[in-house]
Amino acid sequence: MKEMFMPLKVSATALEAQKIRMNVIASNIANVNSTRTPEGGPYKRRDVLFESYMFDESSVGVNIPKIVEDQRPFKMVYDPSHPDANKDGYVSYPNINTIEETVNLISATRAYEANLTLINSYKEMFMKTLDITKA
Amino acid sequence: MADDTMNILEKMLDIAAFRQRVLSSNIANADTPGYKAKDISFQQELDKAIKASNNGNRVSNFRQGYEVYETNTTMPNRDGNTVNLDIEMAKVAENTLIYNAATQLMTMKVRMLKDVIKGGR
After folding, report:
1. A104 interfacial to chain B (CB closer than 8 Å)
2. Inter-chain contact B110–A124, Cβ cutoff 8 Å?
3. Which of A68, A95, B15, B90 is the Cys-Cys partner for A72 at CB 3.0 to 4.6 Å?
4. Distance between CA A54 and CA B36 in Å, rounded?
5. Residue B64 pLDDT
6. What does the pLDDT read at residue B49?
7. Chain A environment of B21 (Cβ under 8 Å)
8. CB A128 to CB B108 under 8 A?
9. 3-class SS of residue A21
């Protein structure tokens, strides 16, 4: 009985993970021009770390153990009038590429939909099984 | 009461349900670095079960683990992940159809049995 709903659990972990990933992508896109953060300096691009999570040998869910900061260098833009410009007149902008984020967003959406489809198909299978008794 | 057909249908449902678990795991891990896509062979497992039942084991007593193997892919992603979402979704569609077909047939068998019990009334 316990393993009966395993596919639902597995897909649910994936939905959760993709949703966290989407939140992170949304934050990245929102902060594409943020030159100031509470921790000081420009916003650093964040990325999620996916990790498989074993329910048992055939059911492997997914988990996000932590959100990591992208270590790529900041984008330097020459703008001497900007309040955050350094002494040479350059401003550090976040290391975010909107196109890259959009591609990741599409990938996350696809994965989310695929997992949702799976939940629905499993539900349908289960209901069909129950209908055997109604013959 | 349960005849051979029913035993085989039962086995088909069991294998398809198990395969669904493997496939959901693959799709859940479509973005996990290093994850290797896995699968079982429906036909092979069913053949094994039928062979065992011909040797006198009742099918549902024959519950050895299914043979899970890593699927071959044309090209793994850069992070070593071998899940191909399109292929996996196609497999899910196939698996769901098999499962639904088996449940339909099972429903028909049960209905026939009921008709017999009721004497056609």
Report:
1. no
2. no
3. A95
4. 13
5. 63
6. 85
7. 3, 6-7, 10, 58-59
8. no
9. helix
Pick A121's closest partner by Cβ from B13, B17, B96.
Answer: B96
pTM (predicted TM-score): 0.85
Provide the residue type at B108 as one letter.
Answer: M
Counting every residue, how long is chain A? 135
Amino acid at A32: V
Cα–Cα–Cα angle for A90, A41, A69, rounded to 5 degrees: 115
Least Cα separation, residue A23 to chain B (angstroms): 16
pLDDT digits (tens, 9 = 90+) for B30-86: 999 989 999 999 999 999 888 887 776 665 555 568 888 998 877 777 788 899 888
- Each residue's pLDDT tens digit, B78-116: 788 899 888 999 999 999 999 999 999 999 999 988 899
Instruction: Look at residue A67 and give its three-state secondary structure.
Output: strand
- Structure tokens given for A96: 């975010």
φ, ψ of residue A18 in degrees (nearest 5): -65, -30
Q: Of A13, A21, A132, which is closest to B28 when you measure between CB atoms?
A: A13
Tell me how many helices (H) and strands (E) chain B has. Answer: 3, 2
By the 8 A CB rule, do A62 and A81 touch? Answer: no
Q: Looking at chain B, how many residues does it have?
A: 121
